[in-house]
Specification:
Keywords: Membrane, Transmembrane, Transmembrane helix. This is ABC transporter permease. The chain is globular and about 60 Å long. Helix 3 packs antiparallel against helix 5 and helix 6 packs across helix 7. The protein contains nine helices and no strands. It has one domain. By secondary structure, it is mostly helical.
């Protein structure tokens, strides 16, 4: 497994897109933090937690795109056969990609949190006085980026096309969940992506469960579809 992790880490860090996507996620959050930090009429709102909102969803989408590339680019460029030749076991391939992507998701989430706070302070705003609420918001961002990165890996492995997988993820996040909440009257805390962003246990548990099932399906179908 150590060899598989080293192989995957070398592949990921050699992709310029990985670092561009993570940087873009941080820049979006800094801009959002700056916007809310410049506001002087927040009332009871908190600048840092308010700065997450839509911005952390965009950031999570960018992290998911990095996860999609783990399989999507292999399929598009025909290099998966080389990966399978080197690592042999589908379990090792998927597990290594999931672990490395989870680490990148955590790094991306931490970058987003730090740059959000930096943006707020740059705009003259203040850090949250309610440590508990801030902690829940930060926890939601980190869980969201890690799980979204893993969801990207799963979608890339299932759909085998980078653009299609990213598009499917974006449609679900910005259209599918909104439709379920508004028309289907599904509580937002029970929605996988939105619930995780809100640090709601039902949504987070559902998101984690869906990701686990999808990765298991990728592992099972990999040798059958690409053998």
């Amino acid at each position: 497994m150590k060899h598989a992790l080293a192989y995957e880490w070398f592949r990921v860090r050699s992709l310029r897109s990985t670092w561009l996507l993570l940087t873009a996620a941080g820049v979006v959050q800094f801009a959002s933090g700056l916007y809310w930090g410049l506001k002087r009429d927040l009332g009871t709102l908190d600048a840092v937690t308010s700065a997450f909102g839509l911005a952390d969803r965009v950031g999570a989408l960018l992290v998911a795109a990095a996860g999609v590339a783990a399989f999507g680019l292999d399929h598009q460029h025909g290099t998966l056969a080389t990966t399978r030749l080197v690592l042999r076991s589908p379990v090792r391939i998927v597990a290594a990609r999931a672990l490395v992507t989870a680490g990148l998701g955590l790094l991306g989430g931490l970058l987003m949190v730090v740059l959000t706070a930096a943006g707020v302070l740059t705009g003259g705003g203040a850090l949250p006085a309610d440590v508990g609420a801030a902690g829940r918001a930060v926890g939601g961002v980190l869980a969201l980026t890690v799980l979204s990165g893993l969801a990207g890996v799963a979608l890339g492995g299932l759909l085998r096309h980078t653009g299609l997988a990213i598009g499917a993820f974006a449609v679900w996040v910005f259209v599918g969940e909104t439709t379920l909440a508004v028309l289907g009257r599904v509580p937002v805390t029970a929605l996988p992506f939105t619930g995780t962003a809100l640090s709601a246990l039902p949504g987070t548990a559902l998101y984690a469960g869906l990701v686990a099932v999808a990765l298991a399906v990728v592992t099972f179908t990999l040798p059958r579809r690409d053998g």
